[in-house]
Automatic annotation (TrEMBL):
Protein's name in the database: Formamidopyrimidine-DNA glycosylase
UniProt keywords, alphabetically: DNA damage, DNA repair, DNA-binding, Glycosidase, Hydrolase, Lyase, Metal-binding, Multifunctional enzyme, Zinc, Zinc-finger
Region forming the signal peptide: none
Gene3D superfamilies for this protein: 1.10.8.50, MutM-like, N-terminal
Requisite cofactors: Zn(2+)
PANTHER family, sorted: FORMAMIDOPYRIMIDINE-DNA GLYCOSYLASE (PTHR22993)
């Protein structure tokens, strides 16, 4: 799943390659990927990509009508100002940039292509999604806050406003909730998913099941430092990479996530896994749980 560092890298890539280009056509291939219908996504044609931003794991492409300036965009009548193409790539979605898009409209089907955006002269990008669980979401809105997932986001963990005290406030409000769930709850902290939450907890040397109200002041400081360092380092590594290279870069630099059965790069212990219905987490017993393996709840149910 693309998380904060990869989405920010995609935003930076699009700022370099797409800002200033005009949308010539939009092909909506998978109707289920369209979460808004008014304005229709086809209304983006003829608009210029004026800016690219990020809200947590959401991409925001600001689309400006021809002739509009930053100053008058908000003064025009409704429907004539900026539109925003908001994209959430979900678990298996991705953005694929191309300089040789076929001009012929793609046929709707069961393939990975969800939306194709043409920017002229064969340039553009595809929004694709692998697998059978189609969760990639696109929204066309006049204000990003109109997207429910954006409006409910917690603080961005790389923003200046996200201080150690801000994290302490999040933990206090969470009560006995477990750290793994707090880190991945977008309403508490925006942008962290399954992979980087495992990496953060490994860096902080904390159990994923440790309750929020069980942290001392020094442990809160250690968790804060891990959040900032893991995400910042990942964002720096991703910066400047082409969109097609971001997935492999992320996977190559993970210490525990997705590495069940391999040696922990810090202590050499075997990385363990806890499985859930549709996901799993990875951790190092020596680094995080005092050498004690956590119960794999799915396996425990099978053995009963």
């Amino acid at each position: 799943m693309p998380e904060l560092p990869e989405v920010e890298a995609l935003a930076e890539f699009l700022r370099e390659e797409a800002v200033g280009r005009t949308v010539t056509r939009v092909d909506a291939v998978a109707i289920n990927a369209l979460k808004t219908f008014q304005p229709p996504i086809t209304d983006l044609a003829g608009r210029t990509i004026a800016a690219v931003g990020r809200y947590g794991k959401f991409l925001d492409l600001t689309m400006r009508a021809q002739g509009n300036t930053q100053e008058n965009a908000q003064e025009n009548a409704e429907g004539a100002g900026d539109l925003h193409l908001i994209v959430h790539l979900a678990r298996a979605g991705w953005l694929r940039w191309s300089t040789s898009l076929a001009d012929k409209p793609p046929r709707p089907g069961k393939g990975p292509l969800a939306v194709r955006v043409h920017l002229g002269d064969g340039v553009g990008f595809d929004l694709t999604e692998a697998g059978t669980q189609k969760r990639l979401a696109t929204y066309v809105v006049t204000d990003p806050a109109l997207v429910p997932g954006v409006s409910r986001l917690g603080p961005d963990p790389l923003a200046d406003e996200f201080t150690e005290q801000a994290l302490a406030d999040v933990l206090k409000a969470a009560g006995r909730a477990q750290l793994k769930g707090i880190l991945t709850d977008q309403a508490r902290i925006a942008g962290i998913g399954n992979a980087y939450s495992d990496e953060i907890l490994h860096a902080a040397r904390m159990s994923p099941f440790k309750p929020a109200n069980g942290l001392s002041e020094s442990e809160t400081g250690a968790l804060y430092a891990a959040i900032r360092s893991v995400l910042t380092d990942a964002a720096v590594r991703a910066r400047g990479l082409a969109a097609k290279d971001l997935k492999s870069e992320k996977k190559t630099n993970l210490a525990v996530h997705g590495r069940t059965g391999q040696a922990c790069p810090v202590c050499g212990d075997t990385v363990r896994e806890v499985s859930f219905a549709d996901s799993s987490l990875q951790y190092c017993p020596t680094c995080q749980t005092g050498g004690k393996p956590l119960a794999d709840r799915r396996l425990s149910r099978l053995l009963k």
